Amino acid sequence: MTAVTTAASPGRDATRAPVRGLTVLYDARCSLCAFLRDWLVRQRQLVPLELVAAGSAEAERRFPGLDHATTLDEITVVGDAGQLYRGTAAWVVTLWALADHRPMAHRLSTPAGARLARGAVLAAAKWREGQRARREGAWGGRAGNEGAWGGRTYVAADGWTYDQAVGWTYHPPACGGGTCAPR
Which of 48, 52, 123, 130 is the most interior residue, by most CB within 10 Å? Predict the structure, then answer.
């Protein structure tokens, strides 16, 4: 856990201070992130959550010492005493703040649960990567046509292909010049 300096908590020891509020920084351009934001605000909260668009002027004003480019790549949560949570820890602490999901957060904080939580975070990251590629035109068809598969096939440079008719398939990248680099 890394502490960040916030205007509300200068000089407090963020590693031992109780968490009384959390700010969730989410990617407002990501449909999954927007869906989860809407879901979070409908949940009963034991610890108040504020949801702020990552990389926004508001996020930069609140957290001037934070690497805001990184907040667009992975979920980031900042506690009211300057606690900083990223990736899997951010998901778990967000669930911990919710009345109906705190027991799940406790299970996800165990070694076995942490593997499950990490898998969920990686799956979400892979999905977001596909959406980003789609926005930037890596999908068949025009860029920016989010939310409509339209029978298109997604092809990633790592060899994975998704076709709506057959699902995910793996085709290893071809070797250039007839020879493959050693592994």
Answer: 52
**Hey, is 155 helix, strand or coil?**
strand
Q: What is the pLDDT of residues 131-141, one digit of tens each?
A: 766 666 554 44
Q: Is 51 in a helix, a strand, or coil?
A: strand
Local structure of 162: helix, strand or coil: strand
Structure-token pair, residue 21:
């509020």
Check: CB of residue 81 under 8 Å from CB of residue 18: yes
Question: Taking the mean position of all CA atoms in its chain, how far away is CA 162?
Answer: 21
> Which DSSP state fits 98?
B
Between 7 and 59, where is the model more confident? Answer: 59
**93 close to 22: Cβ distance less than 8 angstroms:** yes
pLDDT digits (tens, 9 = 90+) for 99-113: 999 999 999 988 888
Residue whose pair of structure tokens reads 């999954």 in the numeric block: 32
